[in-house]
Amino acid sequence: MTLSRLAVIATILVAAAACDKKTAGSAPAPGGFDLAKRPEVLFQLFGDRSDPRMLPVLYFDGPSLKQLELPAAEWRVFDSLYTRPGNKYTLYADGAPAGIVRVRQGMWETGEPLYTLPGCQSLLPHAAVTVAGGARDAQGEYFATSRTIAPPIATDPMAPAEVAREARRGAQVVGASASLSTAKLGSLDFRAVALSTGATSSQTIIGTFIDPGGGPGMGDREGNGNTAHVFAILDRIGTEYVPTFRLSVNGPQRTAEFRRYVDHLDLTGDGVSEIVLEGWQFGADSYLIILGFADGAWTEKFRGRSSWCLDQR
How far is residue 151's CA from residue 198's CA, in Å, rounded to a whole number? Predict the structure, then answer.
């Protein structure tokens, strides 16, 4: 779901039938998530500073990032263990600690769910939280976990003008592979960002060209019309910055895939940050994608859910 939609939906508190919490069993859930072993979990914050919320994204299995899969009843056990009032987690932004998150209320703490969705029986649990420290605006798209995450390796900073120049040049190269002209790219919104990921001894650069009307949840659900988008990650290989991740779109909305940079942090503990993206298609809910760096390229290591409803469809 998009962050704007997250903030709206998460403030709708609707009464539902109360249910007693159960204790954790000994058998791991499908997919290997074993509540008895209390694996460390990565959470994402959303909402606004007056009422921030937190939802689980994945769990850590050694260096692997795994999808959280639990039977409906076991999500209540998860809630009682991981989002019990008073539980604290370290908040991270740009790969470094940015504050502390404290749980105020779990999903079923009062007997009624913190939120509901029309026609949905099984929900991904959320928690109401407070944030202490430098990062107080949950709309900054922060992540929280009990896992200790090493800060990114420092790299020499680049001047903003140099970052923009390299990002634009690299994204234009990627766009050319989809027959996107310089003039066409000039009509799109452009963004450039530099990150200290540790992938190389220089900063990683991201260059994005995006259709101004192509944000998450926007567009024609029938997929009529054309759109354009370029998302390029660049790293210095040898003496030049070259594309190490490419996505280019020049065609129908209905098949277009979009990406947006969210954050970076070393989730696997190998000294190189993973890059967190938001992915979406026109008219659809968004989802998180986590990229890892190996053999000179960024590749997908994890893809999150696009819905908070866990009912079998």
Answer: 10
154 in a structural domain: no
Q: Which residues make beta-bridge pairs with 242? A: 235
Query: Per-residue pLDDT tens for 260-305?
Result: 999 999 999 999 999 999 999 877 889 999 999 999 999 999 999 9
What is the spatial distance between Cα 56 and Cα 41, in angstroms, rounded to a whole number?
7
Number of domains in the chain: 2
Q: What burial class does residue 287 get, using C-beta atoms within 10 Å of its C-beta: 0-12 exposed, 13-18 middle, 19+ buried?
A: middle
- pLDDT score of 246 more than 80: yes
With contact defined as beta carbons under 8 Å apart, do 205 and 234 qualify? yes
Q: Which of 93, 206, 207 is nearest to 152 (CA)?
A: 93
One domain, residues 93 and 185:
no
| Residue 121: Cβ within 10 Å count | 12
Last residue of a domain, one of 83, 116, 145: 145
Compute φ and ψ for 59, nearest 5 degrees: -125, 160
Structural domain boundaries, residue 131: 3-145
Q: Looking at the DSSP assignment, which residues form a beta bridge with residue 276? A: 263, 290
What distance in Å separates the CA atoms of residue 220 and residue 252, rounded to the nearest whole number? 11
**End position of a domain, from candidates 121, 145, 169:** 145
Q: How many CB atoms lie within 10 A of CB 17?
A: 7
Of all residues in the chain, what percent are helix, strand and coil, respectively (each to 5)?
15, 35, 50
Q: Supply the pTM of this predicted model.
A: 0.85
Do 178 and 248 meet the contact criterion of CB atoms below 8 Å apart?
yes
Spatial neighbors of 62 by CB under 8 A, at least 6 apart, are none
Distance of CA 96 to the CA centre of its chain: 16
56 near 47, Cβ under 8 Å?
no
